[in-house]
Amino acid sequence: MIVIKTNEEIEKMRKAGRLAAQVLDFIEPHVQEGVTTLYLNDLCADFTQKHGAISAPLNYHGFPQSICTSINNVVCHGIPAANDILKDGDIVNVDVTVILDGYHGDTSRTFMIGNVDEKIEKLVVRAENAMHRGIAAVKPGKYLYEVGKAIEKYISKFGYSIVRTYGGHGIGKDFHEDPHVLHYYSRENKIRLQEGMIFTVEPMINMGKNYAVDTSTTDGWTVTTADGSVSAQFEHTILVTSEGAEILTKV
């Protein structure tokens, strides 16, 4: 059931989204070679708390940390840990979701550490471009599948693959709401876009043609590429407006 947000709710979502973006801006200079993902987690949690919000992932269905940190071949839901030390040439997606005044702001970026291989650097740049292609396809009265169609059209020319197991989602008072947002073309997303809808666009792009993922990790959360290839992701929370899409997760 898709929830159309009221003007009051939209304003609260703007504030939550802005804070989520501020968390990523704050953590960016700390994402360096030699630091642990647990260190990044603790900094983000402290920043979030000091700004009157809480970290949504913490204890969400048992998730043990405040952010997700997904390194190299980890697609999503990587758990920050003291023994995960960032190395030169790594990429890491930092995914933050805050709850401010009862509403969620959800965003992520993939950061590059030191001297990243040129092919991987291109993957990261194109993953961000793919997200923006999807956002640009959002128009009231159009169908949601235009988002996935735009992403797939852009990504297909590079020989990459788009993860199909996970997608974007509606968001508001709840962390995950309808609709489920596919990042490839599918008639399953034949959902008419309306002003006041809020959802995330967050394509996960794998290097190589295999879009399959492996969920059989011992921690029950970490998702990796099935073939060991590198994966990159960017995410924004967006609002459908009368003219298109407003990115809520920006400063």
Keywords for this structure?
single chain, 251 residues, alpha+beta, three-stranded antiparallel β-sheet, 25% strand
Quick recap:
The chain is α+β, with helices and mostly antiparallel strands and 251 residues long. Helix content is 26%, strand content 25%. It has a single domain, classed as Creatine Amidinohydrolase, CATH 3.90.230.
Structural write-up:
This protein is of the alpha+beta class. The chain has one domain (7-247): Creatine Amidinohydrolase (Alpha-Beta Complex). It is built from 4 helices and 15 strands. The chain has helices spanning 7-27, 37-50, 118-136, 145-155; strands at 54-55, 68-71, 74-76, 91-100, 103-112, 161-162, 168-170, 177-181, 198-201, 204-206, 213-214, 223-225, 231-233, 236-240, 245-247. The strands form 5 sheets. Strands 1, 2, 4 and 5 form a 4-stranded antiparallel sheet that branches. The protein is globular and about 45 Å long. It starts with 6 loop residues before the first helix and ends with a strand. The mean pLDDT is 98.
Question: How is this fold's topology laid out?
Answer:
Blueprint lengths: L6 H21 L9 H14 L3 E2 L12 E4 L2 E3 L14 E10 L2 E10 L5 H19 L8 H11 L5 E2 L5 E3 L6 E5 L16 E4 L2 E3 L6 E2 L8 E3 L5 E3 L2 E5 L4 E3 L4
Antiparallel strand pairs: 1-4, 2-4, 3-12, 4-5, 6-10, 7-8, 9-14, 10-13, 11-12, 14-15
